[in-house]
Write a structure and sequence with these properties.
The structure is a homodimer of 446-residue chains. Chain A has 446 residues and is of the alpha+beta class. Helices cover 51% and strands 6% of the residues of chain A. Chain A has 20 helices and four strands. The model of chain A has no long low-confidence stretch (mean pLDDT 92).
């Protein structure tokens, strides 16, 4: 653990890239497998998004050797496939989040890993391992860049994510240690991505940028391109040029031999504002409440961190999009068992659903600054006078099987039977190849 | 001139992109034409550089629709061609420089303009105009980013250059004003490039990055991609995130309707250290000295800014590369008429040339801090006792015909008869198409 002793970020990342499979923590590996399925579901659900269509048009015009599968389109060169798949899978903003990294790992890194894996004929397990090591690298680089980087205006998904994509693609391209250093050096001069794109197609494009940069830099290093020796922390490297207040040691501890920070990765389970998720989880986690008739509930008090009240407490949403920001509507939907994980149910019809409007009249929402922004507390009064006290904390670690079940439900909500097939075929990756995964990704016609 | 009144950089750049041909200053247009020929010569001379071969291999592996010519290789998609041609033409570091912009304009912007122009069937003149407007935009963005950006570690060639490439490609793709704003917004999240690559293949790669980013962002905007409204100076736009001390007004004055800053573009005429160029120009500008026998010179005193003495005053160079950093050797070569513009003459044989070694014994070099780093003073004593006082200032504006003659000589020194053909066919661009230029670029087999 030379890097822990000497505090060298690039040494740690280069070492991570070469971790043998046996050194990967079991739980992190299983989570990385769940991330794969979740990433595929998010991507397949977005193939008709305008952004996805435009990017496919770009690479379709370019054409080229089809070695990697493209969401909703024909196979393409690895770099082009990574660009499209990264952007497409982030188009719904429904993919996973790592809060310490401050970004979305799957959408920047899996497209690079899968494209490189398909190109080189890797197994699916090798793709998952490469993703995991890329993600772990990206988390640690994101920590060193720190909140100062994010607050200045950079988007870790794109910036730190590009290094993760480089590690993942580089591992699958078989780079040796010197080549991996060069690939990271090239990535230092190639990585980019700003938060000022939020609210435009530029946001999902950022994920595609990360993925395609990773493939390009890894491929060039494989061809022998030279670059700075330490593109991360070296003089005028990526970190000192892109963070006004980097935390040089934040990414080094605990060393990855002891713990993978990827274990804290979080999954979006509902296609609505994150501020409402703790409430929804509290409701659907209650055997007394979930699936009951709305008429059985006499009153519902929701308590949340006060910051959310300015974000997602719309009392009478007018559109499907506004429903995603309404505690009152979402509470009724969750109680009666609507599939809040299905992006397709947030329609204007839902906004004008009279049963939900009636129920909303029984809901009060109050701010409680003792709650974190990942927590919610509920007091439910049933018609028979029973009172239920419910609570949920999104930060709590879900039992793995429960997480898997929720993600399977999400995939089915998003994709219908294709979501079932996705899980049946790929929950166990034994004997599966990268090209099998790719064939499934490319199978959904736009 | 709304932008001058309101001080909006992006408004100015969008207006520049739409300048009618008739609004372009004549001298700037002619200089842009010289830049085209110089850029082509630098690129054609570098097709066998290892970096160029590797990048061609990358895009060759990808293949794709061949709509744009590639230096030393087969036609490729516009984005891929721009990547290779940008990097290849910067590989010898022999291309033009704009000191206020702090970077190299041709290598980041011409490859984007030419690739987009070939793809769309433009005339060569349209390519030159698009380059000029992209270059003028890049200069002004570079001025706003300022020396703080450069000193922090960014490479304006790549960063401001990407915006110039976007303007050039976007103009040739026929973007309307809204699309041009979107293209610049996308470029804000795509542009990158660090100086820590200097001394590695990452430096010329930066020029290719700028060019390919410009093509990609312009193409995506043409397809309707949305982005931030002001990706330059807006909240968390490119400038505030990439310069600790931007000079918001530096790029706006004088407004481009009054003067193009591109007129200050400088050309490298000798394939050796920039610190020796003023001495060489003083020698070859002297009718009494140029081409004379080395034996006719009894003594030569060279005065230069003291900073150069640590850089290019090697007394006895051991290799061809070291010859490029030796006043004494280069003085002898310039006097006897060696083609200092030919990268190929800096060989180990030249380093062990006994006539040059003898002559070097007559040369003294002294620092003089009254001289700028672009000036040199020489005192020559001939065998017959005559004393000559010579001086040169690289900052002085060359008469256009003299500059053209020197660039023609440079092209011939670099390329031999192909350099002659280049000038014969393209000095006058009347009736020439972008594809004619491309065919010539692609004609030199590697």
């Amino acid at each position: 653990m030379k890097y822990a002793r000497e505090g060298s970020l690039i040494d740690m990342v280069v070492a991570l890239a070469a971790f043998p499979r046996t050194a990967l923590p079991d739980r992190a590996r299983r989570l990385a497998g769940l991330s794969l399925l979740d990433w595929m579901a998010c991507g397949l659900a977005a193939v008709d998004e305008p952004l996805a269509i435009k990017l496919r048009r770009l690479i379709g015009d370019e054409a080229g050797r089809g070695v990697a599968s493209v969401l909703g389109g024909r196979a393409a060169p690895a770099r082009a496939a990574a660009l499209v798949n990264g952007a497409t899978s982030h188009a719904l903003d429904y993919d996973d989040t790592h809060f310490a990294h401050i970004g979305h790992l799957s959408v920047g890194i899996y497209p690079a890993a899968l494209a490189a894996g398909e190109e080189r004929g890797a197994t699916a397990t090798q793709v998952v391992d490469a993703f995991l090591l890329g993600a772990e690298s990206a988390i640690r680089i994101g920590l060193v860049l720190g909140s100062a980087h994010y607050n200045l205006g950079f988007h870790q998904t794109a910036t730190a994510g590009a290094f993760g994509a480089t590690v993942a693609a580089g591992r699958l391209y078989g780079l040796d240690e010197g080549q991996m250093r060069a690939a990271l050096g090239l990535c230092a001069t190639r990585a980019s991505g700003l938060k000022s794109q939020f609210g435009t197609m530029g946001k999902p494009y950022n994920a595609g940028i990360a993925a395609s940069n990773g493939v390009e830099c890894a491929a060039l290093a494989a061809l022998g391109m030279s670059s700075a020796d330490d593109g991360l922390m070296g003089v005028q490297g990526f970190v000192p040029t892109h963070s006004p207040k980097p935390d040089a040691s934040a990414g080094l501890m605990p060393p990855p031999e002891e713990a993978f920070l990827f274990g804290d990765n979080k999954y979006k389970l509902h296609a609505c504002c994150h501020g409402t998720h703790a409430m929804i989880e509290a409701i659907i986690g209650s055997e007394d409440l979930k699936g009951s008739d709305l008429g059985n509930v006499a009153g519902l008090e929701v308590r949340a961190n006060p910051r959310w009240l300015r974000v997602c407490d719309l009392k009478t949403p007018r559109t499907g999009l506004e429903v995603k920001f309404s505690y009152a509507w979402l509470a009724g939907m969750a109680i009666r068992g609507d599939r809040t994980g299905d992006d397709g149910i947030y329609t204007n019809e839902t906004a004008s659903d009279t049963a939900l409007a009636d129920f909303a009249g029984k809901v009060t929402v109050t701010g409680d600054d003792r709650l974190s922004d990942m927590q919610a507390g509920l007091t439910v009064t049933l018609r028979d006078g029973t009172r239920l006290e419910l609570a949920h904390d999104l930060d709590a670690v879900l039992p793995e099987q429960m997480l898997a079940d929720k993600l399977r439900n999400k995939a089915e909500a998003l994709l219908g039977t294709a979501g079932q097939t996705l899980w049946q075929r790929f929950e166990d990756l034994d004997g599966v190849t990268a090209r099998d995964l790719g064939a499934f990704l490319g199978s959904r016609e736009s």
